Amino acid sequence: MILAANLCFLWLVISVLIFTPKNMSREDLLFLFLTSSIILMLAIYFPAMKAYLGISGYKLQTAEFIAFIINRNVILPIITILFINQILSAGVRQKSLIFFLFLITIDLYCSFEERYTTVTRVPFLFLYEMAYWFLCLGFLKAFQLLNRQEIKKRNITRQPQ
């Protein structure tokens, strides 16, 4: 049942992503998706191993483990992309509101499906969410800066002399 619910929610999140106007290039979207997936995989590595190996009674069934993987590697990164996309298009006053909406959304989702997102209870989840948010934003800004520099280098080398 949880797998079906996650697949329906995944469909909904992907639909919202498709229909929202994008303020990032495809490269930025792909980079942010991969970066947020890697950050989440590293952050939830040990609870995932407990769930996979069945250590300390956290053994998940196959459908539950697939739901966990979908949450960790697809749904949460896409939600991050949606919120960061909104941050990039928002005004100064709206950015803090979007940031707190992101924290509340992720916190509610992680507490609602705790067994399939973080596996175990995480104390001070807001701190982890804030660190995740700022890491994703920082990596995206660094990627955009490096991408602009690469484009400038290409334009300089292509100019006729």
Automatic annotation (TrEMBL):
Transmembrane helix recorded as keyword: yes
Key words, A-Z: Membrane, Transmembrane, Transmembrane helix
Keyword hit for Transmembrane helix: yes
The protein's name in its UniProt record: Uncharacterized protein
Transmembrane segments: 29-53, 65-84, 124-146
Native source organism of the sequence: Sporolactobacillus shoreae
